[in-house]
Structure formats: C-alpha cells, structure tokens
Automatic annotation (TrEMBL):
Solcar repeats lie at residues 34-117, 129-214, 224-312. It is a multi-pass membrane protein. GO terms for biological process: transmembrane transport. This is Mitochondrial coenzyme A transporter SLC25A42. It catalyses: ADP(out) + CoA(in) = ADP(in) + CoA(out); dADP(in) + ADP(out) = dADP(out) + ADP(in); AMP(in) + ADP(out) = AMP(out) + ADP(in); adenosine 3',5'-bisphosphate(in) + ADP(out) = adenosine 3',5'-bisphosphate(out) + ADP(in). It is found in: Mitochondrion inner membrane. The lineage of its organism: Eukaryota, Metazoa, Chordata, Craniata, Vertebrata. Mitochondrial carrier mediating the transport of coenzyme A (CoA) in mitochondria in exchange for intramitochondrial (deoxy)adenine nucleotides and adenosine 3',5'-diphosphate. GO terms for cellular component: mitochondrial inner membrane. The gene is Slc25a42.
C-alpha cells in the first residue's frame, strides 16, 4: 500500500492479542494481595507514629490508674525524670511498639476487609456502609486485633508500672510472669479488654467514617484535608475512649495486680473493690481527663496517617502500572 502500512493477515483475530494484554494486567488475586499488604503497612505505621507521639502521656495514665491520686502519679513521673532522664518518659515504648505495630496493622487491615465483606452482604459494594454495619466493622476489627496481640499489651502494662531493675527487656517480662505467676497471667484482664474494645473500636471507626461521609455530602469534596482528618479522628477518639474507659481501668488493674499487691478474680469484683475504695467517678473514671488529651491526639494521628499512607501507596502503584 502506498502509505507503507501493511494490512493484517486474513487469519489475524482480535482475541489473539487479549492474552498478551492480560498478561501485563495485575490479576484480581494480585490486586487483593496488594490491597491487604498496603493496609497492613499503613496500619503498622499509623499505630507506631500515634503511640510514639503520646508515649509520655500514656505512661503517666497507666501509673495514675494504679495510684490513689493525681499528685502521687505526677510525683512518680517527676522522680523518674530526675533520676533516669528525659528519655525515661518513653520507657516501655519499645514494648508498646512490639504490640502496637501488629495490633494497628491487624486492626486497620481487618477493618478494610470487614467493610468489604459487610458491603457485599448488605449490597453496598463500592458505597459507604449504613450506620449499623459501620459500627460492626469497627468492633470486629478491634476484637480481631485484641485477641491476637493481648499478651503483648500485658507485657507493656507491666513494664510501664514497675522499676527499671525489675524487668530488663520484653523477653524477661514473659519469662518472669510465666515462672512466677503462670501463663494464665498473660491473659489476665482479657475479658474486660474485649468488652471494652467492642464499643471503643466500634464507635471510633463509626465516628470517623461517618464524619468523612458527612463531609463529602456537604462539602462536595471526595476527600477531607489532613487537618480535617485529624479533627475527625480526634472526635472519634474522644467518643470511643469515653464510652469504654471504665473497662480500661479494670483491665489495667487486673494486668498489674501481681506487682501492685492486689488480687482481682473477676471484672465485677474488681469494679466493686475500686468503687468501694475510691468511689464511682474517682475510681472507674480515674485518668479520663488525661485520656481526653491523649486519646484524641493519638486516634487523630493514627487515622490520618493510615489514610494518607493508603493514598500514597495507591498513587505509587498506579504510577508503576502506568510506566509498565
């Protein structure tokens, strides 16, 4: 032909090209694996950044829950600072990271998967869940993460309330607790933890997802800005932690009973003793005011970090696929 373009052979068929094209496209299974991996990585980073930011406040809160008054807890923190230096305020943070990184990774990843499962079940594929499934997805995500990482939370609590000389590292905590108190001790306080996680994680994820949906409906923007995400996350943390706080106090008391000179055999008996000795508000809500500072900051950072990491990873993968 005059223009130099050769006609295709008569037996050439369009479907002959399809296998070549499809070979360069990621399969559905590969995409799902990448999605899960992205969620795990984003969740791990979100938990690490958030917990490191509030580590000194977290340690103060745990100490305060085991003390009789604010003044006593602050004196202990101040003495720790004077005797062991500024970085001692982050003591136990390595144990926190060992627990928080897998916990946050599992929780955020599980939340994404539960949202997808519930969306398919209720017929909301690709759309925001309605309020009840939204709450259930958060509760299931928190419960899944708590069940798989609880012993690490126990170790973290012990390291935060004991002198530096008592436990040298995380492994030492496991060994001493196992030898001196039995393996069951690693799951002491597990029941109040699960009972507390259900409203905490449920309300936190529910509030955050709801505020994002309301923002999209009223602003016309598909995504909130980072400061708006921080604000939504702060609201989520405030509501979630306020609802579950009494069970958090009970959990800490049961976890640290072996080194604080107490014996708690059940949730109800622990609550009764706390109320009898310290009162309802001053006992079961001890340290809540600090949680109103620490909690919103931590949850806001956590949710924002997760969302921004997800967006970044998706953009990187998209640009990689385009270049190919």
């Amino acid at each position: 032909m005059g223009n130099g373009v050769r006609a295709a052979p008569a037996d050439f068929k369009q479907q002959d090209v399809e296998p070549v094209i499809s070979a360069h496209l990621p399969s559905e299974g590969t995409q799902e694996k990448k999605k899960v991996l992205n969620s795990l990585m984003s969740g791990a980073l979100a938990g690490a950044v958030a917990k490191t930011a509030v580590a000194p406040l977290d340690r103060t809160k745990i100490m305060f829950q085991g003390k009789s008054c604010w003044l006593e807890a602050y004196r202990l923190i101040y003495r720790t600072y004077l005797n062991e230096g500024f970085w001692s305020l982050w003591r136990g943070n390595s144990a926190t990271m060992v627990r928080v990184i897998p916990y946050a990774a599992i929780q955020f990843c599980a939340h994404e998967e539960y949202k997808q499962l519930l969306g398919s079940y209720y017929g909301f594929q690709g759309k925001a869940l309605t309020p009840f499934p939204r709450f259930i997805a958060g509760s299931l995500a928190g419960t899944t993460a708590a069940m798989l990482t609880y012993p690490l939370d126990m170790v973290r609590a012990r390291m935060a309330v004991t002198p530096k000389e008592m436990y040298s590292n995380i492994v030492h905590v496991f060994i001493r607790i196992s030898r001196e108190e039995g393996l069951k001790t690693l799951y002491r306080g597990f029941t109040p933890t699960i009972l507390g996680v259900i409203p905490y994680a449920g309300l936190s994820f529910f509030t955050y997802e709801t505020l994002k949906k309301l923002h999209a409906d009223h602003s016309g923007k598909s995504q909130p800005s980072p400061p708006e995400r921080l604000l939504f996350g702060a609201c989520a943390g405030l509501i979630g932690q306020s609802a579950s706080y009494p069970l958090d106090v009970v959990r800490r008391r049961m976890q640290t009973a072996g080194v604080m000179g107490h014996t708690y055999s059940s949730i109800l008996l622990t609550m009764q003793e706390i109320i009898r000795e310290e009162g309802l508000i001053r006992g079961l809500y001890k340290g809540l005011s600090m949680n109103w500072v620490k909690g919103p900051i931590a949850v806001g950072i956590s949710f924002t970090t997760f969302d921004l990491m997800q967006i970044l990873l998706r953009k990187l993968q998209h640009s990689t696929n385009v270049q190919r």
